[in-house]
Amino acid sequence: MPRRKSTETTALDSRGAKIGEPVPKAVIDTNTASVGVPRQPDHDLGEELSVLRKQIGALQDQVLDAARSAKGSAGRAMRQTEAAVKLYPASTLLLVAVIAGALAFAGRRAALPRHRPQPALRELRDLYDMIQGRV
């Protein structure tokens, strides 16, 4: 027989920790076999905010440096491409034509409908035809 549920309610503890208070860390001293709570430093929200602001500033600097580097690399690649086109106009034209043809071929091939009967479906059709032939 299952136990009956308890209908008694317990009162909330109003003496407990408040929201935002630091949670004490218990320390067990193995030498003296005693349990105690060490004194915890007070949290200064101003210091934490200043540290977070410094970290955000450092991240912003890293992102800006990466963007500048990418911009410089893109400009360098563009200048190299322009120089190659000026030096080899016929080869460049041929390369562009080959790339355009490959893209057109790939697009046409992807657009073609694919009607491949599935092997399981084919077997079911054969079985159905065989049963119809017997009847």
Detailed description of the structure:
The structure is a single chain. The chain has 135 residues and is mainly α. 61% of the residues lie in helices and 4% in strands. It has helices spanning 45-87, 89-111, 119-134; strands spanning 27-29, 34-36. The protein has a two-stranded antiparallel ribbon. Strand 1 (27-29) and strand 2 (34-36) form a beta hairpin. 0% of the residues are buried. The mean pLDDT is 80.
Structural class: mainly alpha
How far apart are the first and last residues' alpha carbons, in Å?
63 Å
Spatial arrangement of strands, main beta sheet: 1-2
Q: State the shape.
A: flat
Q: Low-confidence runs (pLDDT<50, min 5 residues)?
A: none
**Helix run count:** 3
The overall pLDDT average reads: 80
Q: Which sheet architecture does the biggest sheet show?
A: 2 strands, antiparallel
Rg, nearest Å: 38 Å
Fraction of helical residues:
55-70%
Strand content: under 5%
Order of secondary-structure elements: EEHHH
What is the β-strand count? 2
